[in-house]
Every structure is written in structure tokens, then in C-alpha cells.
UniProtKB/TrEMBL annotation:
The keyword Cell division does not apply. It comes from the Bacteria. Gene3D superfamilies: PEBP-like. Keywords: Signal. It holds the Pfam family PBP. It comes from Albibacterium bauzanense. This is PBP family phospholipid-binding protein. Residues 1-21 form the signal peptide. The keyword Heme does not apply.
């Protein structure tokens, strides 16, 4: 009887140690992290990356360098989503879509500064903003408060079988619907901007 009790206690102890070790490993796994050399997280976005850039084309500005680390195991692609939190479109919960890039290869750890216009980028990923196939820099008016521009990076366990829709908003809706149940990591980076007076 004592041997059975000792065996049971030993098995229970081994099981507890195993669960604790698994939980500790999960805690130690660093989260997906997004950074940029263009401006500090929570800092002012330089004019170069905005619609206020000298000589900027319509929509304006160069896309900033973005880097990420701690890619989750099992990542098959990334989605990068940039939006202005301080605008409500047509009295809805929709905010201002500035850029969405999807099917960024799982092997990528960055997006270079100044990506070219065009629906498909050299790495095979796709991009769109509210109306055109390119990055659209911040353009908040000079009057009023600074706007918050959030860059969100999603690590997915699938590659999305999606092409650009007729509008940027519909494309964004399609992408977010397809992402449901497949997000295995997320990171955000914030920049502030309003046009100079």
C-alpha cells in the first residue's frame, strides 16, 4: 500500500514539475516586437514620412523603416496595418486606413524605408491604402490635437489567399475576416503627427 502511495505521489510530482516547466517556458518566450529607426515609439513622425513632406506626391511621404523581432514559431506570413485612431469615418467605428500590407513572407524581419507604389511588392506581398496601392503618410490638419498613427503587425499561421478588392476599406475587411483564428502574434508601434502651421 505504501509503495502505491509513494508511486502516486511521485507521478503527481513529476506531472506538476512538467506543467510548471511548460508554463515557465511560455512566460520566457519574448513577445513579437515592432520597432523603427524613423521615429521613437510614441514620438513625432518626421515630415519625410508624411503628406507634409516637401515635394510629396498625392498621398505623400516615404514609408518608414519597420523592423520586428521574436517571430512566433509557426508563422507563415505577416500583415502590417497602419491607421489613424483619431478619425471616425462617416459616423462609424471605422478609422482612417493609411496602409495595409499582407502576405509579407514569414522569413521577413523588416520593411525597408520608401517602398515603391504598386499593388504587389517585390517580395510578393500586397499593399493598399484607402484608395491607391501605396503607403499614405499621416496628414492630420494643423489645427487641433496631434493624431495617433498606429502601425500594427500581425503574425499569422497561414498565408492569405486574397487579392486587393475594389476599395481599401473592403480589402481591409476581407483581410481581417480571413485573419480570424490565425493570429499567433501581434505588436504595435505609435507615431504622432499634425501638419506644421
Amino acid at each position: 500500500m505504501k509503495i502505491k502511495k509513494v508511486s502516486f505521489m511521485l507521478a503527481l510530482l513529476i506531472c506538476s514539475v512538467s506543467v510548471f516547466a511548460q508554463q515557465a517556458a511560455q512566460v520566457r518566450t519574448p513577445p513579437l516586437t515592432l520597432t523603427s529607426t524613423a521615429f521613437p515609439d510614441g514620438g513625432i513622425i518626421p515630415n519625410k514620412f508624411t503628406q507634409a513632406a516637401p515635394g510629396a506626391a498625392p498621398g505623400g511621404g516615404a514609408s518608414p523603416q519597420l523592423d520586428w523581432t521574436n517571430v512566433p514559431a509557426g508563422t507563415q506570413s505577416f500583415v502590417l496595418y497602419m491607421h489613424d485612431l483619431d478619425v471616425a469615418i462617416n459616423k462609424t467605428t471605422n478609422d482612417n486606413l493609411h496602409w495595409i500590407v499582407w502576405n509579407i513572407p514569414a522569413t521577413s524581419t523588416s520593411l525597408a524605408e520608401g517602398l515603391p507604389a504598386g499593388s504587389q511588392l517585390p517580395d510578393g506581398s500586397y499593399q493598399i491604402n484607402g484608395s491607391t496601392a501605396q503607403y499614405r503618410g499621416p496628414g492630420a490638419p494643423a489645427t487641433g490635437p496631434l493624431h495617433h498613427y498606429v502601425f500594427e503587425l500581425y503574425a499569422l499561421d497561414i498565408k492569405l489567399d486574397l487579392k486587393p478588392a475594389e476599395t481599401g476599406l473592403q480589402t481591409k475587411i476581407n483581410i481581417f475576416n480571413a485573419m480570424e483564428g490565425h493570429v499567433i502574434g501581434k505588436a504595435a508601434y505609435v507615431g504622432l503627427f499634425k501638419r506644421p502651421q
